[in-house]
């Protein structure tokens, strides 16, 4: 049977067809839909969970695989940095059952803080790495990955990119194999599963031998394919870039690698010897290129193609033309049609009804330095707020805040962190602040979800990935009190005055304080209220309401005579009735809807 | 046969439901298909696009090259202009005329429609209005699919099957309503195409 699946849906299907029984991970674009799909579609056959963070997910996966369950971990590229500590010991130990880790990289930085190339992790950790080119291979390589994992007793890394994870292609579906329902007692094999130095020494030698064994096996594997055509140009490539190469170089001979760590040295030498010019086309870092050069083979790569951003077909073509690899197409002079200039972009903003809006309005007014974190609230770094001054990694905000404190900057300081991010990696740095006597305000923006990645659960919520309302919810306020924070204040995020008072109180406190701004994400509550309206008699076109950065607040076509500016208007189709704009209006011109009127957003 | 379509709109307008119907029709016709999407922040009112490539040959890249799109199907008029560099000289621009204004600097709609009119092959259709007239207030996407179907080398019956597949679990009434909406969109394009 055929189906149209996104790469992420195909990874989920692959887990099903590989007989995987346990799947763990932490949400992160572009990887999130793998576990979402498993939780909603394959719940009867596989246990899946959103773990607190990627490292916790990896440890849980190792434990399940040691116990004899086929297991998969999913992460986005930067999540690998978090789970790598645990990946590396699992490489030494191997497991009783197959273990695959899927990393979804983000060349082009669609939703990430960097463009790191996670193929390095396969080299660092010394594990096999598979790279699919479309949804069919995404599914097949999970099955293959489990096979390789069990054959060589090693975790296997599978690398996706946004273009694989989010694109849809046709997939031929297969069946799920029989997998045992029960597992036996846990193996008490200390020399295999305890990486104490005396055992780890032997494990390391085993890992080196294992990679040599895999390389030998790989030479005759069907994972790597040669497409012979004209031999003037020979291209070595892998993954989604292979599909671009086929469009841009339809006549070149191509060696497509399915496994890119280790590399099949004999096959590459043989291919290189039969073509006039050898080129490696790979996105981001020259990982294949450097290894091929180390074999003493003359090869082109990053001298032609940039190490930055995606190598999409149109861009690949430009590089290839500049290097005289292909001829430029004759450009047909198009008639001057519809070259409409200055089409404004619709950049992401806080949604109408977002609980974060008030805090950023207040922080902008208070002019405090703000260490930021990862989540929707990073939009607070944009105009009109300009109020999140740093952002780098999950959980980093609290540590950076502490750094400001020990550096003794002359002003008091704040950091922002979401509820999911706090559970992910915010607790250790808060403990550090408490223990080392820091000063600063930690604002935990509790919107009851992991919003930016598509509204997944976390330990502060009462449901799970399967949507069952069975999860134990951890309350943040008693938690931070128990951690020793003496000044803790919870406020209603939709009440601007309350938020402002909360900030002022916490800023006065000489020590670490926590301000919890509570208000559900509009996607969680799904309870939009009726739209507000602007009373044009009262509006003085001061544009204070624009400082709340809401897409529903727009200019009207009516001018205020005294300053010649356009008055404000609320777009009734966008407004969710949160009232934040009306709270900041100095003349009370933004009015609540009449009682009983139905919400326009319904 | 090859059919490269760019789907355009604003996050939340549901262009993916269009892709589902056309995609189903393509697979049922034994064609190869690839569909590129970008998720993430674009969910929140940002501009969204999807590339849909259909062919009776193997498709490699899922991305439509510039100047190669056979159809730009846009559910929002300003967004239709954003992707014009992708349109092939013979290609069709099929756009909704109802604007989605969630930005303060949205251009004059009259100017936008005038620019659409400069594209040699175009259909401009008030799909929101037509859907409302047909008492299918959420049917704008199917009006647009019907209008664009005129320029697709895909059996119209197969598109109807796509609707049955997509809307089947919502009941026969919804299926019939959307098929009628699809037909109305196609009829409009037949009568109002630019050339």
Write a concise keyword list for the protein shown above.
heterodimer, A: 602 residues, alpha/beta, Rossmann fold, 4 domains, five-stranded parallel β-sheet, 35% helix, globular, B: 195 residues, Pyruvate-ferredoxin Oxidoreductase, domain 3, 6 strands
Set down the secondary structure blueprint:
The complex is a heterodimer of chains A (602) and B (195).
Chain A: E1 2-6, H1 7-17, E2 22-25, H2 33-41, E3 47-50, H3 54-66, E4 71-76, H4 79-93, E5 99-105, H5 119-125, E6 129-130, H6 135-152, E7 156-161, H7 162-165, E8 168-172, H8 190-193, H9 197-219, E9 225-227, E10 230-238, H10 239-248, E11 252-257, E12 259-261, H11 265-273, E13 277-281, H12 287-294, H13 313-322, H14 357-366, E14 370-371, H15 396-406, E15 414-418, H16 419-435, E16 440-446, H17 476-482, E17 487-492, H18 496-508, E18 512-518, H19 522-525, E19 533-534, E20 553-560, E21 565-570, H20 580-584, E22 590-591
Helix pairs in contact in A: 1-2, 1-6, 3-4, 10-13, 14-18, 15-16
Chain B: E1 2-10, H1 15-28, E2 32-37, E3 47-55, E4 69-74, H2 77-82, E5 87-96, H3 109-118, E6 122-125, H4 127-133, H5 140-149, H6 156-167, H7 172-192
Parallel strand pairs in B: 1-4, 4-5, 5-6
Antiparallel strand pairs in B: 1-3, 2-3
Report on this model:
The complex is a heterodimer of chains A (602) and B (195). Chain A is of the alpha/beta class. Chain A has 4 domains: 2-179 and 190-218, Rossmann fold; 225-333, Rossmann fold (3-Layer(aba) Sandwich), CATH 3.40.50; 357-525, Rossmann fold, CATH 3.40.50; 533-591, Alpha-Beta Plaits (2-Layer Sandwich), CATH 3.30.70.20. A 7-stranded mixed sheet of chain A has the order 3-2-4-5-7-6-12, with helices on both faces. Chain A starts with a strand and ends in an 11-residue tail after the last strand. By secondary structure, chain B is an alpha/beta fold. Chain B has a single domain, classed as Pyruvate-ferredoxin oxidoreductase, PFOR, domain III (Pyruvate-ferredoxin Oxidoreductase, domain 3, 3-Layer(aba) Sandwich). Chain B has helices at 15-28, 77-82, 109-118, 127-133, 140-149, 156-167, 172-192, and strands at residues 2-10, 32-37, 47-55, 69-74, 87-96, 122-125. A 6-stranded mixed sheet of chain B has the order 2-3-1-4-5-6, with helices on both faces. Chain B is globular. The two termini of chain B are 22 Å apart. The chains are: A alpha/beta (602), B alpha/beta (195). Chains A and B meet through strand 1, strand 8, helix 10 and helix 13 of A and helix 1, strand 2, helix 2 and helix 3 of B. Strand 8 (168-172) of chain A pairs antiparallel with strand 2 of chain B, so a sheet runs across the interface.
């Amino acid at each position: 049977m055929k189906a149209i699946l996104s790469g992420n849906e195909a990874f989920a299907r692959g887990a099903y067809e590989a007989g995987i029984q346990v799947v763990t991970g932490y949400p992160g674009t572009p990887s999130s839909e793998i576990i979402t799909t498993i939780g909603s579609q394959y719940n009867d056959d596989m246990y899946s969970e959103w773990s607190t963070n990627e490292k916790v997910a990896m440890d849980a996966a190792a434990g399940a695989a040691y116990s004899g369950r086929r297991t998969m971990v999913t992460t986005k590229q930067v999540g690998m940095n978090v789970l790598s500590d645990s990946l590396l010991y699992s490489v030494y130990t191997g497991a009783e059952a197959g273990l695959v880790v899927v990393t979804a990289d983000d060349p082009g930085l669609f939703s990430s803080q960097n463009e790191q190339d996670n193929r390095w992790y396969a080299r660092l950790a010394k594990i096999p790495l598979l790279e699919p080119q479309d949804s069919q291979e995404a599914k097949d390589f999970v099955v293959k990955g489990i096979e390789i994992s069990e054959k060589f007793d090693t975790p296997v890394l599978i690398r996706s990119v946004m273009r694989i994870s989010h694109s849809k292609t046709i997939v031929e579906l297969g069946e799920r194999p029989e997998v045992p329902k029960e597992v036996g007692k846990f193996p008490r094999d200390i020399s295999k599963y305890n990486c104490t130095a005396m055992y780890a020494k032997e494990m390391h030698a085993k890992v080196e031998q294992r990679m040599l064994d895999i390389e030998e096996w790989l030479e005759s594997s069907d994972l790597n394919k040669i497409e012979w055509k004209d031999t003037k140009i020979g291209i070595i490539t892998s993954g989604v870039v292979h599909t671009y190469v086929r469009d841009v170089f339809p006549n070149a001979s191509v060696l497509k690698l399915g496994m890119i760590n280790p590399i099949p040295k004999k096959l590459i030498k043989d291919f290189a010897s039969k073509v006039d010019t050898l080129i490696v086309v790979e996105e981001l870092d020259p990982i294949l290129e450097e290894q091929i050069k180390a074999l003493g083979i003359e090869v082109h790569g990053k001298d032609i193609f940039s190490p930055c951003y995606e190598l999409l077909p149109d861009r690949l073509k430009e590089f290839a033309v500049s290097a005289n690899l292909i001829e430029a197409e004759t450009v047909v002079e198009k008639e001057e049609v519809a070259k409409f200039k200055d089409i404004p972009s619709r950049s992401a903003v806080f949604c109408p009804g977002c609980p974060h809006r008030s805090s950023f309005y207040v922080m902008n007014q208070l002019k405090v330095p703000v260490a930021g974190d990862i989540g929707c609230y990073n939009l607070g770094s944009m105009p009109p707020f300009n109020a999140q001054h740093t952002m780098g990694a999950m959980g980093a905000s609290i540590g950076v805040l502490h750094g400001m404190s020990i550096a003794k900057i002359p002003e008091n300081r704040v950091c922002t962190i979401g509820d999911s991010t706090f559970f992910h990696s915010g607790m250790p740095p808060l403990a550090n602040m408490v223990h080392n006597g820091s000063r600063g305000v930690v604002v935990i923006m509790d919107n009851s979800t992991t919003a930016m990645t598509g509204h997944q659960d976390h330990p502060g919520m009462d449901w799970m990935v399967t949507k069952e309302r069975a999860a134990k919810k951890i309350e943040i306020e008693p938690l931070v009190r128990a951690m020793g924070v003496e000044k803790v204040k919870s406020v209603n995020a939709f009440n601007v005055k309350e938020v402002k008072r909360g900030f002022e109180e916490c800023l006065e406190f000489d020590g670490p304080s926590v301000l919890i701004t509570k208000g559900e994400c509009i996607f969680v509550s799904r309870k939009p209220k009726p739209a507000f309206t602007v009373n044009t008699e009262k509006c003085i076109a001061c544009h204070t309401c624009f400082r709340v950065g809401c897409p529903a607040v727009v200019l009207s076509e009516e001018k205020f005579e005294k300053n010649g500016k356009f008055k404000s208007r609320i777009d009734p189709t966008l407004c969710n009735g949160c009232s934040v704009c009306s709270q900041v209006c100095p003349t009370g011109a933004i009015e609540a809807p009449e009682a009983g009127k139905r919400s326009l957003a319904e | 046969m090859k059919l490269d379509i760019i789907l355009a709109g604003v996050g939340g307008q549901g262009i993916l439901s269009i892709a589902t119907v056309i995609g189903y029709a393509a697979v049922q016709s034994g064609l190869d298909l690839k569909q590129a999407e970008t998720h993430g922040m674009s969910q929140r009112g940002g501009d969204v696009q999807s590339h849909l490539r259909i062919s009776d040959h193997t498709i490699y890249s899922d991305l439509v090259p510039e100047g190669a799109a056979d159809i730009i199907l846009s559910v929002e008029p300003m967004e239709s202009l954003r992707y014009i560099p992708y349109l092939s000289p013979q290609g069709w621009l099929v756009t909704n005329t109802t604007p989605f204004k969630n930005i303060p600097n949205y251009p004059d709609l009259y100017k936008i429609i005038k620019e659409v009119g400069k594209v040699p092959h175009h259909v401009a259709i008030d799909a929101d209005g037509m859907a409302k007239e047909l008492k299918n207030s959420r049917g704008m996407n199917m009006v647009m699919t019907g209008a664009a179907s005129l320029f697709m080398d895909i059996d119209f019956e197969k598109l109807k099957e796509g609707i049955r597949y997509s809307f089947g679990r919502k009941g026969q009434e919804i299926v019939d309503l959307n098929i009628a909406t699809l037909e109305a969109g196609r009829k409009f394009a037949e009568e109002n195409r630019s050339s």
